[in-house]
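seq:
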Amino acid sequence: MKFLALDTCTEACSAALVIDDEVVGELQVVGNRHSQVILDMVSRLLAAAQLSLRQLHAVGFTRGPGSFTGVRIGTGVVQGLAYAADLPVLPVSSLALLAQGVDELRAGEHILPLLDARMGEVYWSLYAADASGTLQAAQPERLSPLAALISTAPTSCRVRGPGLQTYRQDLAAQLPAGVCLEAQAAYPDARHMAPLLAAAWAGGAAVAPGEVLPLYLRNDVAWPKARPVPTP
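struct:
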């Protein structure tokens, strides 16, 4: 299978090509410059692989939650690329992608991906590794005040993501001793999307470009339909 994977949900921007068992891609921390770099990333990857968009099976992307601007850009870009090449789209969770980036998962381990939602709130969910090391959703994606997360977090898990960097001091002081806070900053990375895309494809989760919708988790955000963008 041949998939293009995109993520623009945080201050990082990443793209990857998944060709069977091989993954190539890049990630840059760009702040709010996603629209200036994402299509160049896609063009470089396709050129290096000597592929066109029409030779792919689908385009995968993180539908959110995350930065409102980043989520909008990612949704618009993937719609434009998919319309231009007549490809289906595979939407995945930015939190699932963040959890998927953990190295050497142990059976039974719980991963809590965390994104800063501003205004003292965080986006988070919980994933558990099964006997084969595959992550399964244990808690749905949610938007919570930081205090609510602290009061409901499991007593043993690994916390990772940009939200951890924002609230590390509070989390370190108030979460149970069995909770591990990753030392290094981690972002969702399209290069880790391959298992999520394979599962979505096998599960029939592909949608037409016009059916692609972002996930904000805040009810007061409207989404205007995007126009197609030129094929790189």
